[in-house]
Specification:
- The protein is mainly alpha-helical and about 400 residues long.
- It contains 17 helices and no strands.
- α4 runs antiparallel to α5 and α7 packs antiparallel against α13.
- It starts with a helix and ends with a helix.
């Protein structure tokens, strides 16, 4: 009789755990959707907002590069605070609210103040993805699904946000974009506040500084970060400068929204297929495939920088960014393990979005100003090719390590 009660209690606990995992999964999907809507509406238009105030692409590139540099320097502070005070959920909520409340001040036409505003926003935004991804990876495993099933909602939101921004700007001034950005970020913050307090990011047994030191001694991981940097710095040609370069090539405001929607929507099938592709090809070869798609994407726009081509080539966004990001995040999770997952994701984000963002914004802003879209896209093609070569070395080393383990 006692055994039956114990079995019944075990079943009940398992059912409760499964139900809780599904609830967290749905909350995270909603969070990524709202975060995507906010970012899709506002982020691609930060540069056009600044350019509309009389600044050059080189000037705006410097604003973004400086803000990103400061955020990289301060990002370890976020990891230390989370490790010490176990305030994962609070950090995520604050990282959403502060940029939302500061967005209006992008309309101030004072260069120093704009540098300050962008820097403050970036300092808080830089921790959103590592914290949210740590929740997502943990929740996906608990719900027996893939990280891509959560992350695709972010891409869906980004696509819908980019399209909605194009429609919004046909009726309102570009200087009013802060309103929908504020609205969707506040919704994200409310939803983030309902997430569990504890995740793997806050229960790590290894501090940020110790985990960082371990990872920096891993040569293969350093090669992986170098390849990611060379590939992802090219993405600023889309994230920061696509709206400007598309309109320089003759594209309309309405078509800009359509292009942003097309790019982000292609992430959805890519992320749905990512779990299958990763099982079949592995992390390293999937990243190689995505790097090749980056090369093709930039190479086509280098050869034919026209609105029609630049619109159509956005179908490669899912195959390039979608596959690359999913494979890279899960590669970091597999290499670093549970105890250093937060540190690994933070270091990856510092290089992938941080350092890549600094170099990409300054370099591509300068190239766009001096040589136009064609020169910028040529540089991106070369950088993606170099990144692919380094990732091939990482892939080869991984195969050799697996072969050595199988022989033991």
């Amino acid at each position: 009789m006692r055994d039956r009660h114990m079995m019944a209690d075990t079943k009940n606990r398992t059912a409760d755990s499964s139900s809780e995992a599904r609830r967290v999964l749905i909350k995270l999907q909603g969070l990524y959707l709202f975060m995507g809507l906010a970012g899709g509406i506002f982020n691609p238009y930060i540069n056009p907002i600044l350019v509309a105030q009389g600044f050059s692409s080189k000037d705006t590139g410097f604003i973004m590069a400086f803000g990103t540099l400061i955020s990289i320097i301060l990002q370890p502070v976020w990891g230390i605070l989370v490790d010490k005070f176990r305030k994962t959920r609070l950090v995520l909520v604050i990282s959403l609210m502060v940029p939302a409340l500061l967005a209006y001040f992008y309309n101030i036409q004072v260069y120093i103040i704009l540098i300050l505003i962008y820097t403050l926003c970036t300092i808080f935004q830089v921790t959103q993805i590592p914290v949210a991804d740590s929740y997502a990876v943990t929740a996906a495993r608990a719900a027996n699904t893939s990280y891509g099933m959560i992350r695709l909602f972010g891409s869906l939101g980004t696509g819908l946000g980019g399209f909605a921004a194009g429609m919004y700007l046909s009726q309102f001034s570009i200087h009013m974009l802060w309103l929908p950005f504020l609205f969707f970020n506040m919704l994200s913050a409310i939803l983030a506040g309902t997430l569990p307090k504890q995740t793997s990011i806050s229960s790590s047994s290894v501090t940020f500084s110790v985990g960082l030191a371990r990872l920096l001694r891993n040569r293969t991981f350093l090669l992986f970060l170098t390849g990611c940097f060379l590939v992802n710095q090219t993405l600023t040609a889309f994230n920061s400068f696509f709206v400007i370069s598309f309109q320089m090539a003759g594209g309309s405001v309405a078509l800009t929204g359509t292009a942003l929607l097309l790019a982000s929507i292609t992430n959805v099938p890519s992320m749905l297929a990512a779990a299958y592709v990763l099982r079949k090809w592995g992390h390293e070869r999937t990243m190689l495939l995505a790097a090749g798609a980056y090369m093709l994407r930039w190479g086509i726009q280098w050869l034919w920088p026209t609105p029609e081509v630049m619109l159509g080539v956005q179908v490669l966004h899912g195959l390039s960014f979608g596959f690359f990001y999913i494979a890279a995040v899960e590669y970091v999770a597999s290499v670093t393990g549970r105890e250093m997952q937060a540190t690994g994701q933070s270091l990856f984000n510092m290089v992938f979005a941080g350092l890549g963002g600094i170099v990409g914004n300054m370099l591509n802003g300068y190239l766009l100003d001096t040589g136009g879209p064609s020169v910028m896209y040529l540089s991106c093609t070369i950088s993606a090719a170099l990144g692919a070569v380094i990732l091939y070395i990482v892939s080869r080393q991984a195969r050799e390590q697996r072969r050595a383990y199988s022989l033991e």
